[in-house]
Amino acid sequence: MSVVPAGVLPGSVRRAERGGPEAAELGPRARLWPSLVAVYRAQLSRARVARIPLLFVATFQSVGILIMMRGVVDGGSEAEAVVAGSAVLVVAFVALNLLAQYFGQLRASGGLDHYATLPVPPAAVVLGAAGAYASFTVPGTVVTAVFGCVLFGLPFTHLWVLVAVIPLAGAALSGLGAALGLLAPRPELATVMGQLGMSAALLLGVLPPDRMPEAVLFARDLLPSTYGVEALARTFAERPDWGYVLGDLAVCAGVGVVSLAVATWAYRRAAVR
């Protein structure tokens, strides 16, 4: 029998001889940004098959509203409100309505268990899915805004503000849609709440505010998409008041941070049940 010095034995063999448990080496904790990018790419790739129907339905709906309102509104501030509201409605349709349905179905089917086993922060799951769905709204929003400007004779000069309106309004509405889907006890209720939210964005965002009663105006101020609509509508003026535009965008950003934080909390709450 050969004798091997204890110093040359592997650590695992020495621990086995001593009878002690072998400590497992933990991997590094996943960081938020790489995890967010990975979830975003995965969600974008997953939803790519449904991209054309989504874009067609959301854009066709908003363009149809513009054509319908053309017979009621001639121009001026009312036309600005109609065009801005119809453009932001594309964002509401996808980021609020469809995202609420997605997270509601994900919770009901047990899909949250899959994400819970991944080494990614909960915020990365919510932000990645919200960003992927909001990305599909860009072409439809731009097409609707351009078509509305042509239809109502509004200037194209400041349509570049959509670069800020789309992500900020999308963040606010995506967080709200994700929270509705995750907090709803049943997927059917998540679908209903998402559709009700989109209907509120339609009625309160597209219709000119000058004709609304005070109670409805108060409800309009509570809707996150209102401030994206206001920011875009103000840029159609000959000399936009950029202070008010920035203020509206700041409100969108603040609501987006709060709604995404609530959605992250709702995800953690749903994932542990």
Topology:
Blueprint (H helix, E strand, L loop, with lengths): L10 H8 L13 H16 L3 H20 L5 H33 L2 H7 L4 H14 L1 H16 L9 H22 L3 H20 L7 H9 L2 H10 L7 H30 L2
Helix pairs in contact: 2-6, 3-4, 3-7, 4-6, 4-7, 4-8, 4-9, 4-11, 6-8, 6-12, 8-9, 8-11, 8-12, 11-12
Keyphrases for this structure?
273 residues, mainly alpha, 12 helices, elongated, disordered N terminus
Proportion of residues in helical segments: over 70%
Radius of gyration: 24 Å
Q: What class, by secondary structure content? A: mainly alpha
Major β-sheet profile: none
Strand content: under 5%
Number of helices: 12
Residue stretches low in confidence (pLDDT < 50, at least 5 long) are 1-17
What best-fitting shape do the alpha-carbon axes yield?
Answer: elongated
Question: What oligomeric state do these chains adopt?
Answer: single chain
Would you list the SSEs in sequence order as H and E?
Answer: HHHHHHHHHHHH
How many β-strand stretches?
0
Q: Mean of residue pLDDT?
A: 82
What distance lies between the first and last C-alpha atoms, to the nearest angstrom?
Answer: 57 Å
Describe this structure in words.
The model is unreliable at 1-17 (pLDDT under 50). The N and C termini lie far apart (57 Å). The relative contact order is 0.15. Helix 3 runs antiparallel to helix 4 and helix 4 (76-108) runs parallel beside helix 8. The chain is mainly α and 273 residues long. Helices cover 75% and strands 0% of the residues. The protein has helices at residues 11-18, 32-47, 51-70, 76-108, 111-117, 122-135, 137-152, 162-183, 187-206, 214-222, 225-234, 242-271.
